[in-house]
Design goal:
It is a single chain. The chain has two domains: 33 residues; 134 residues, Macroglobulin (MG2) domain (Immunoglobulin-like, Sandwich). The protein contains one helix and twelve strands, in the order αββββββββββββ.
């Protein structure tokens, strides 16, 4: 009889342990992610980009990445803006490049170019952008001093988020006017 009581007691303990352990696992399970907030930002506004030479779209050197420009050449600012929480393009962002030289700052508004797709005919076919972007250009004036000049790009979206892009501080990465 004692072994029957021991077996029933042991089975009861095992059942209680299993029930308790599964409850523990449920209590430890991570909470499900919150549902997406449609129409609301989920992270910081993030922007980045580069500079390229903007010349005739049929010229093979058009849109070549560079930071060295001569007087009279068009500096092209190419930027993208994303919601840092979702990684999605933030199409409502308004971007402006700010070029500082010779003691003054020139604001260069940037225009939304949109997603990848045919943009302009070239000898090799069509230019396709690899990501959604904004572009703006500034023609280096004849009185611009030779040497390094600085620029930043700022963005604001419909949610009031703001972001600033500053190129790498290494001198070789800075925008340079050459003779």
């Amino acid at each position: 009889m004692k072994s029957l009581y021991t077996a029933v007691f042991s089975a009861g303990l095992i059942a209680l342990s299993i029930i308790g352990f599964s409850g523990y696992l449920e209590a430890q399970a991570p909470a499900p992610p919150p549902p997406p907030q449609t129409g609301h930002p989920s992270g910081k506004l993030v922007i980045w980009g580069d500079t390229a030479i903007f010349i005739n779209p049929t010229d093979p050197n058009n849109c070549i990445l560079t930071n060295r420009f001569k007087r009279g050449e068009r500096v092209g600012f190419r930027m993208t803006a994303i919601d840092g929480g979702t990684g999605e393009i933030e199409q409502t962002a308004a971007l402006v490049a700010h070029v500082t030289f010779a003691g003054k700052t020139v604001d260069v508004p940037m225009n939304w170019r949109g997603a990848a797709g045919p943009k302009a005919p070239t000898p090799r076919g069509y230019i396709r952008t690899p990501y959604e972007l904004w572009t703006g250009s500034w023609t280096v004036p004849a009185d611009a001093p030779v040497g390094r000049i600085s620029y930043t790009v700022t963005a604001t979206d419909k949610f009031g988020r703001k972001a600033t892009f500053t190129p790498f501080s290494a001198e070789a990465s800075q925008l340079v006017i050459v003779p």
